[in-house]
User: What shape does this take?
Amino acid sequence: MNPADRRSLQLDLEPSKLPRAVAYHGARWGLLLGLALLTYVLFPVAGGFDVPLPAVGEVAPTEVIAPFDLIVRKSSTELERERATLAATVPPVYDYQAAIRDSVLARTDALFAALDSARTPDALTAAAQGFGIRLNSDESQYLTAPNRLARFRSAVRTTLRRELSRGVPATGTVESEQHTTIVVRRGDSERVIARDSIRSYQGFLESGAQQHPDPNSTVGNGLYVKLLAGLFQPTLAPNVALTNQLRADLQASVDSVKDRVRANERIVDANELVTPQIRDRLLALRGEQLQRGGGAERSFLGIVAQVLTNALILAAFWLLLMLYRAHTYANLRHMSVFAVLFAIAIAGAWFNRGLISEAPELIPIPFAAMLITVLFSGRVAIVAALVLAILIGTQAVYEGADALFVAFVGGVSAALGVRVIRRRTQLLVSVAVVAGAYLLADVVVGLRSGVAVADIGLNVFAGGMNALVSGALVLIGLPIFESMAKVTTDLTLLELSDPSRPLLRRLATEAPGTYAHSIAMANLCEAACNAIGADGLLARVGCYYHDVGKLKKPQFFVENQLPGSNPHDKLKPDVSAAIIRNHVREGLALADDHKLPNAVKSFIPEHHGTMEISYFLDRARARNSGPEIKPEEYRYPGPRPQSVETAVTMLADGVEAAVRVLDDPTPEKVSEAIDHIVQRRIQAGQLDDAPITLSQLNRTKQEFARVLGGVYHNRIDYPSSVGGISADWQPASTA
Assistant: This one.
């Protein structure tokens, strides 16, 4: 813990300071108490009694006595199985339709009367066509033989009357029935007969062959079958509504109660082996306790115990922040964001379980872990995921350690998979990491508990959906939570680094020298910060905007001036110093106008710190050595650098300007200039407030030398004969 963090916690406990300390810590721990109460409201447990749920085959850790009369109900799977078995005992009901038989016989008589009236083959064909029967020329010619039509009429009518009176269903109807018997209703009577005894359509045709008037004729055989098929209509029809009603009535009679437990009856003894019956009783007791948790039988002490249990779990995270991240703990905005994210995870778990699925893979811990990683730290996110997994996974509704394990794996994988988000593909990789973690967790749980492969697949699908939705919600919610916490993420920094942003576009066009200086500094600072473990992206973006105040009067700064056009030559030193000093104030105003985040805005005043504007101070002293010179008028307003990134920027600002004035910037001269600038800043006390170490300073100087050595490298002379430029080249006008 650094000194600033310690100071944020060292609130004086003298009587006069005690109310302030209570208010300070009370606001932060009040958030924790609110989360504990929210968890109890969404996941209540009656009387504070939590039922142990060892698996079948395990040993019960404690004795469990039923506190009240208890009904053990069958599971939905058991009920469905019993109902299906019972429904399968009801045979299908078929209705015999005598009216259809009479209609078929009347149609048969009408057909043969029409055929009998026909005298020619064409007339026979036309008469049959009127009844939907198509005769070919051979069949029409065949029927013109004497007495042949009468014999066919007798055979067809006899077959239809006999078979349809017995009852013939439509093709494939009876064959698809699973039951071995069928109930046939004829009027008010019912008869149960074997399914195989029902005449099928094929059996109807085969039976009709016994009445064939001319079985030795190929034409007559085809004609006979065509007439039977054209006149046939089924006289046995399935009564689906009645069959379903009978089965539904029988299913409704299934008792949903599997077992009953009396009050004060021992469900399981300590160290007793858990059987399936005991497990069912424990589950029933757990469910009844949860049900009663919302009723009038809640005890005050039970509620207090459960809320305190939730609070103690959450306290692990709060203590981590208070003791090891005091600067975060001191920021009430940050603590409020943590509380909101925890509340979303808790409420999301309740919503998903109540309305979507009971699968622990849908607990939205990955969403909270991803956002905490991006906004604060991956280490903090891992602890937050662990605490949330314990808090939610141990609630009574999740029934055992599997939910805790799955929630923990999903949350931690989210924290490890995100780390930084600078591109959309990185978020997709994070989603894949979380989905893969859920896959492994579900396979482990499935193998350990003997879960069916189909159920494992459903759980894996739920985990994948959680990962995908969490990633999408992070993109949507990140700007909101970033604004709430006043935290600047890499995505925001990348947006600010876009050269087309209005402020940078103005800097490039109105103050090109300052813009070039800012780009050069950005390269220096990013390389140095990355080398010493600081935020290189923040340093780069901070350098882009550190001198935007020069936009107000760009011509008064040397990098934007043409040779021989320095307006300071006509001004008094104090006026010039005021113009130079004011670019800090004007830069802050522009930063406010363009809504730059504080992390970037801090580079504007801190890169100068409280350094003297030595050039104009020396000019003032040369002109007038009297006491009327006020040193504070020749000093930047500050503050001094407060972060490693702004400290590196201060050093880079001096180094970049100093190296430009060297006539021959050899590596030795560049290194000496860097050492000189750094020592001057240290001697002036400008780095006293920055948390930068001597080791980091040495590494920073090495990176400065490396980068500047690449910028000011030697180039070869190209011969003027081929249009090149050499060291002694002169413009044509000069020559």
Remarks:
- Strands lie at 64-65, 70-73, 93-96, 181-186, 189-194, 236-238, 257-261, 266-268.
- The first strand starts at residue 64 and ends at 65.
